[in-house]
Backbone:
């Protein structure tokens, strides 16, 4: 099928009739701006080919312009070697007409649509158009897989070509049944059991659990029966009279043995007490004997010691006599030394007093001179003290007077006396002649007496602040006059001289007072009194002797005598200490002799008389021997008892045996009671269990468990078989699919190489592109860029278009605004692909991008006004 | 002075037959109780008033009270008979066991239970030496005591015991040894044994009576009671084997190579007529069956099963194979046939688990590919 012309009116934005004519039937390109109506034109053409004139579908209604009107579409197309014109009007004026332009056929109304279906249907009809007539944007939406109707068409076309791949439908059908059956047993997603399979598994598990429970119950019952038998046996053993008698005999024997042991232990304890008592008596007698012997020994020892002490006392008394003599001699020597030292000290003291007198006499002289000088200076001090501040104030007032005078003169008239020759001295002021050139400032009325002329009085006038200056001057002069008067001088210079004089006298006075204080700190009179006192102490002669003494010689003698006195004193002290020691020894010796004498007396008082002492010793020895014999007897008796009596361990064992024998009897009684109770319990439990037939139940459950396990195994086998069958069918389906895909891929490869030289494309069962293989890497198509996906989709359509065309079922491939996302290189490659595709069937490209498609060959078509033939009488309303 | 009695054993009342459908199991269980009547009938018919039951009266010592009452009631119904019951390895005489409960459940006066190895007078000049079991297993021969138990001169001595006779192969299920020479060593005139479910004379005067009602497919001659007559001390016993069974248990094995191989068995069932409904058949199918015939085989087996009381099928050794004719059933060559061939290859050879799965998958493929095949294939 090839489209030759499309004409429309009352369609979308085209209220006015327009036409695109001159399609070549090969590669036709319609370039027009956006919203020029390209899509509307081809949508109207598609609807005219696929929808009945009576259709009121949304698609048809969407064709109608806003202002209303019946959409009119006219298409000229070549089908089966003949050119046809289809003219269809929808909605209000619906009509249809199919005309062979050769004039051989013409149908109208329903006949026209039937004829059109026949004409197109023989070549796949709607599916064919859907496959290759791609609306704007459909390529990306439809990139993966063509629609179902289109697939059937492609498959039918391929089936005609690939006879060996027949049977694929049957495989798919069986596989669907297998999948449904499998789906009843396992969930597809999680591969978990479901339905009967799950129920069988649950039943098998429950049966196994129930069986285990019943088996446990059976085992319990069996165990209870065994236990009951064991209990009965044990009860019989316990209640056996011979055994019971043996238990009683055991207790009797144990108690008798324990009683005998107690008696033996009591005998042993009594023997121990007797032996202890005998030992005590013997030890007491032996101790008495030993004590008497010790007293006698002590008496002898003290007597000897007393004699020794008497000798020692005599020796010490002789030594004491010698020591007393040495002590007195040493004391005399020491006294003589001290007296010699005291004499030398007195001489030395007098010598020192003489020297002191001379020094005092000299100081008194100097003090008197200084006191005299000070009196003179005091007297010489000015009557009025002039200090520096007074002088400074006087200087400041004098300056103020000078300044006020100068300023007053400056504001006063000045009289300059200039004499004429020969007139000098004739002008007088205040009676004094005024010299030539004298300048007289008139600060107060000035009276100039000019000899021979008279008096000329000049008034100072009232200009400026003369009055204030005159007052200030007068103030200064008054205060200066008071200051000078107080100081008793007349001028400031006199005042300054007076102040210098006063300062010099004061300095001299200070120096004199310092000297006086150094010589006589407390004044002259105490110093004179001390001199008088020294003179009196020294006396006339003493003073004269003292003047002759050599103080250094005297000092040396005193030192020598002091050393001699110290040596004598030290020697006397050593002698005194030796005497004291000897004295203490003598006293100690006396004390010890007294103590020994006292102890002798005391000891002798405790002992019998010397004649009786031997007798007493014999008595004590005899007593000790007797107690020793008694002790030996007691110990022999104790040994015998010790042999008879059992030790603590054996006694404990006897006691334990009694306890054990009693416990055995009690235990037997308790056990008999427990056995009776346990037997009752077990019998009760078994009686309860007899109400139900556990054995039968166990048998039933065994079979049930076996059955359910068998069923589960059977279902597992069925599932395994279904999976195996599904896998085999899937493998076969894949083989068939590959065979079906081969015709498409064979036609796709040339186009693919134009755009992706190294690429290969994997298609899925629905001929949708699945993966692009480049450089050995497989990329899922869904992950490719929009541009690449769109290019691949077009290439696949070109392959399908060629497949159809080669089967004589060619339809135009219509691309509406395609290759929007392609770069320059790709779009050029795609142009070549489209050009090659158009060699087999018509390719119509609609685009708004004139520049991008400039390189695309083919025929350019365009919109042009159309003047539809007036309502044809042949067009019959529906 | 002689004596006559019926020797029976191994009633195993209350035995469950859970492997069968519940109604079949119930009928088999009822048949064991009915066996009491049939044994009693044998005695009554022979004019004998003594029945010796050589152990395993009950299948379990936990038999329900109801079952015990029913059994006692059945025996009580025949007051002209005296029933001597012996505990066996299934119902040993243990405290709390089935025999301990009997007195509390109303023991009839004509029922004697021997719980201890002590002589009991059956009649004047005839003593019974019972060897009851007190445990499921015993290391010692329970009949040993008979050797040292004398009886007056001229007295008939009848031993009653339950266990496996030594030297008798491994017959008997009880782990209880019994000396085969006990009759001679103990001077017994007859030793009545239980435990072996088939009827068997071990030695002269030493008999297993077998169970009166078969309970398994074991081909050892079950389903009898023994009518024993002792004419006097030292005289050889006269033993008559009397049938008492209600159902027959049969084992059959069919090696399949085609559907027709099943026909002889079907004919056998046909010949049995209504009696087929009292037959329980264990059928082992072996060989191989064509995939195309498998559906038809199932149909014919279902028909056979319906004729019998029960059909216990074992097809573990039956294989499924694909023939050229089967391939033709799949229609023209194509992918389905290719799958069938591959599955057939996997199913061929040793019967491994994988081969079994492939076999099954092959059957499924045929059922999906030829859904009307089973409908058309009738026996």
Residues:
């Amino acid at each position: 099928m090839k489209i030759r012309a499309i004409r429309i009116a009352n369609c979308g934005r085209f209220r006015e009739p327009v036409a695109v004519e001159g399609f070549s039937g090969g590669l036709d390109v319609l370039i027009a701006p956006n919203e020029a109506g390209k899509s509307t034109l081809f949508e109207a053409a598609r609807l005219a080919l696929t929808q009945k004139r009576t259709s009121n579908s949304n698609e048809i209604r969407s064709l109608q312009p806003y202002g209303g009107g019946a959409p009119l579409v006219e298409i000229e197309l070549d089908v089966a070697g003949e050119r046809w014109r289809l003219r269809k009007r929808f909605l209000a004026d619906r009509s249809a007409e199919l005309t062979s332009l050769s004039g051989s056929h013409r149908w109208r109304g329903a006949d026209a649509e039937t004829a059109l279906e026949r004409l197109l249907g023989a070549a796949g009809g709607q599916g064919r158009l859907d496959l290759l007539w791609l609306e704007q944007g459909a390529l990306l939406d439809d990139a993966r897989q063509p629609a179902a109707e289109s697939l059937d068409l492609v498959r039918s076309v391929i089936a005609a070509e690939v006879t060996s791949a027949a049977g694929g439908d049957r495989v798919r059908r069986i596989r669907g049944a297998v999948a449904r059956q499998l789906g009843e047993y396992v969930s597809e997603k999680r591969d978990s059991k479901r339905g009967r399979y799950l129920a069988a598994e649950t039943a098998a598990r429950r049966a196994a659990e129930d069986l285990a429970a019943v088996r446990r119950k059976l085992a319990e019952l069996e165990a209870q029966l065994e236990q009951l038998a064991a209990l009965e046996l044990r009860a019989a053993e316990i209640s056996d009279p011979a055994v019971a008698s043996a238990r009683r005999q055991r207790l009797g024997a144990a108690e008798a043995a324990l009683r005998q042991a107690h008696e033996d232990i009591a005998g042993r304890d009594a023997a121990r007490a007797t032996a202890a008592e005998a030992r005590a008596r013997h030890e007491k007698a032996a101790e008495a004997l030993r004590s008497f012997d010790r007293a006698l020994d002590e008496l002898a020892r003290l007597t000897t010691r007393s004699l020794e002490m008497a000798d020692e006392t005599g020796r010490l008394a002789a030594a004491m006599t010698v020591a007393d003599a040495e002590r007195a001699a040493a004391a005399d020597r020491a006294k003589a030394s001290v007296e010699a030292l005291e004499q030398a000290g007195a001489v030395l003291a007098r010598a020192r007093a003489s020297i002191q007198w001379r020094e005092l006499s000299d100081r008194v002289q100097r003090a008197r001179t200084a006191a005299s000088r000070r009196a003179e200076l005091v007297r010489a001090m000015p009557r009025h003290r002039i200090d520096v501040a007074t002088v400074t104030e006087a200087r400041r007032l004098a300056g103020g007077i000078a300044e006020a005078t100068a300023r007053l003169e400056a504001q006063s008239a000045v009289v300059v006396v200039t004499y004429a020759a020969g007139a000098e001295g004739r002008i007088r002021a205040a009676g004094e002649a005024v010299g030539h050139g004298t300048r007289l400032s008139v600060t107060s009325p000035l009276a100039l007496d000019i000899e021979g002329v008279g008096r000329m009085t000049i008034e100072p006038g009232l200009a400026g602040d003369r009055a204030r200056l005159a007052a200030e001057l007068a103030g200064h002069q008054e205060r200066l006059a008071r200051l000078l008067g107080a100081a008793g001088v007349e001028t400031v210079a006199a005042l300054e001289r007076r102040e210098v004089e006063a300062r010099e006298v004061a300095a001299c006075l200070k120096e004199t007072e310092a000297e006086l204080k150094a010589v006589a700190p407390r004044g002259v009179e105490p110093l004179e009194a001390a001199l008088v006192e020294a003179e009196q102490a020294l006396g006339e002669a003493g003073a004269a002797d003292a003047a002759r003494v050599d103080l250094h010689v005297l000092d040396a003698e005193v030192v020598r005598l002091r050393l001699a006195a110290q040596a004598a004193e030290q020697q006397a002290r050593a002698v005194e200490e030796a005497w004291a020691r000897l004295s203490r020894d003598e006293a100690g010796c006396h004390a010890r002799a007294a103590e020994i004498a006292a102890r002798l007396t005391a000891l002798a008082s405790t002992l019998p008389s010397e004649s009786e002492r031997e007798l007493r010793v014999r008595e004590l020895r005899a007593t000790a021997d007797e107690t020793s014999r008694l002790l030996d007897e007691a110990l022999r008796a104790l040994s015998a008892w010790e042999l008879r009596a059992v030790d603590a361990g054996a006694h404990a064992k006897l006691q334990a045996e009694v306890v054990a024998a009693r416990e055995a009897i009690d235990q037997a009684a308790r056990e008999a009671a427990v056995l009776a109770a346990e037997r009752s319990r077990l019998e009760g439990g078994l009686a309860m269990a007899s109400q139900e037939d556990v054995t039968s139940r166990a048998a039933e459950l065994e079979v049930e468990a076996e059955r359910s396990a068998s069923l589960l195994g059977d279902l597992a086998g069925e599932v395994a078989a279904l999976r195996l069958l599904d896998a085999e069918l899937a493998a076969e389906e894949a083989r068939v699919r590959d065979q079906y895909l081969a015709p498409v891929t064979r036609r796709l490869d040339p186009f693919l190489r134009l755009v992706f030289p190294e690429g290969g494309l994997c298609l899925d069962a629905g001929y949708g592109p699945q993966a692009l293989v480049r450089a050995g890497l497989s990329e899922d198509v869904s992950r490719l860029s929009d541009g690449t996906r769109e290019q691949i989709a077009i290439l696949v359509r070109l392959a399908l278009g060629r497949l159809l065309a080669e089967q004589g079922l060619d339809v135009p491939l219509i691309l509406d605004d395609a290759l929007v996302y392609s770069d320059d290189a790709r779009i050029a490659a795609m142009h070549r692909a489209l050009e090659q595709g158009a060699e087999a069937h018509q390719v119509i490209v609609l685009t708004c991008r004139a520049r991008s498609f400039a390189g695309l060959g083919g025929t350019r078509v365009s919109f042009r006004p159309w003047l539809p033939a007036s309502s044809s009488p042949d067009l019959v309303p529906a | 002075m002689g004596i006559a009695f019926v020797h029976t054993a191994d009633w195993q009342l209350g035995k469950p037959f859970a492997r069968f459908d519940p109604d079949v199991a119930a009928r088999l269980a009822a048949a064991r109780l009915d066996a009491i009547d049939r044994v009693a009938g044998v005695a009554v018919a022979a004019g004998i008033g003594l029945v010796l039951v050589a152990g395993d009266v009950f299948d379990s010592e936990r038999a329900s009270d109801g079952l015990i009452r029913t059994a006692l009631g059945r025996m009580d119904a025949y007051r002209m008979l005296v029933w001597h019951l012996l505990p066996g390895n299934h119902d040993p005489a243990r405290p709390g066991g089935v025999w301990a409960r009997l007195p509390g459940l109303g023991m009839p006066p004509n029922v004697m239970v021997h719980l201890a190895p002590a002589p009991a007078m059956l009649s004047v000049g005839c003593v019974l030496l019972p060897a009851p079991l007190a445990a499921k297993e015993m290391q010692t021969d329970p009949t040993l005591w008979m050797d040292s138990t004398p009886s007056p001169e001229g007295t008939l001595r009848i031993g009653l015991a339950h266990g496996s006779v030594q030297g008798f192969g491994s017959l008997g299920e009880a782990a209880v040894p019994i000396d085969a020479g006990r009759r001679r060593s103990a001077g017994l005139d007859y030793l009545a044994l239980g435990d072996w479910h088939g009827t068997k004379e071990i030695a002269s005067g030493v008999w297993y009576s077998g169970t009166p009602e078969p309970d398994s497919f074991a081909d050892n001659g079950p389903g009898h009671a023994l009518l024993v007559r002792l004419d006097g001390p030292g005289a050889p016993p006269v033993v008559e084997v009397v049938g008492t069974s209600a159902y027959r248990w049969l084992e059959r094995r069919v090696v399949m190579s085609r559907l027709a191989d099943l026909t002889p068995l079907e004919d056998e069932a046909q010949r049995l007529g209504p009696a087929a409904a009292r037959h329980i058949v264990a059928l082992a199918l072996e060989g191989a069956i064509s995939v195309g015939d498998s559906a038809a085989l199932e149909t014919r087996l279902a028909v056979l099963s319906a004729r019998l009381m029960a059909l216990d099928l074992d097809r573990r050794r039956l294989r499924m194979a694909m023939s050229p004719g089967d391939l033709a059933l799949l229609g023209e060559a194509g992918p389905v046939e290719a799958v069938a061939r591959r599955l057939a290859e996997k199913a061929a050879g040793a019967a491994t688990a994988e081969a079994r799965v492939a076999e099954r998958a092959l059957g499924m493929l045929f059922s999906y590919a030829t859904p009307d095949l089973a409908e058309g294939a009738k026996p």
The mean pLDDT of chain A is 84. The first helix of chain A runs from residue 38 to 50.
